[in-house]
Amino acid sequence: MIKLCPFRIKSAIAGVVLVLAGPAFGAGAAAPLEQSGIDISNKASLQRGAQTFFNHCASCHSAQYMRYSRLVQDLELSEAQVQENLNFLRDPADPSQTLKIGELMVGTMSKAQGERWFGKAPPDLTLTARYKHGGADWIYTFMKSYYFDPSRPSGWNNSVFLNTAMPHPLWEYQGIQEPVLKKEKDAGGIEHTTVHGFKTISAGTLDARGYDEMIRDLSAFMEYLAEPAALQREKYGIWIMLYLLLFAGVAYLLKNEYWKDVH
Length: 263
What we know:
Layout lengths: L42 H14 L6 E5 H8 L3 H7 L4 E2 L2 E5 L5 E2 L5 H8 L9 H4 L4 H9 L1 E3 L7 E3 L12 H4 E11 L5 E13 L4 H19 L3 H30 L4
Antiparallel strand pairs: 1-4, 2-3, 5-6, 7-8
Helix pairs in contact: 1-8, 6-8
């Protein structure tokens, strides 16, 4: 059992300090997705991913189709651990109290606040791994593909989701990188500038391997968040398949017994 660290509010608009004067540049098609290599059966990985999610994502985004009690059931955490380390949202009826363990993970940022601060309200993240093409691989690649872009209001852009409104929430861990650009012509002879990798211009608190592991755990938790039943489905799936194979064998023998006189 890992110990989850207390919540620290991170400024999601920290990237604004990187807005500097400079030429704008564009990018072409999004980069191919990297394989995340997640394992949602790894409870320690899910716990670490939950820690990252609630420390750095839940202050702006909601996961309103999930209840805190489900984390107790699936992640082998006690109610006290969830309430102390993961539940920081306030009860609208009593702002001095956090939401109860059975409540939904609603966000604290209103739609009006999101639109005023970021240009659009941060979306709910419960089903992101389901509706994004590539699922966890999309999330994993997206969180590795932020780069400094002085033409953007926040100072950030992303080669997977161009012109994203969200500044890089984990820049202090990954550091700051700039894109390696390359000009290419498409089939119609039109020239485009595309991103071919990144170059670090300011190191973060984690090395590349440490940041990859952090994002892999976050991607695994968001995959779990999108379909908690997958833990049980994968656990019992092999037994169901074995049962069906056994039943098929019995049915075959029974069929032969019924049809032997006909033949």
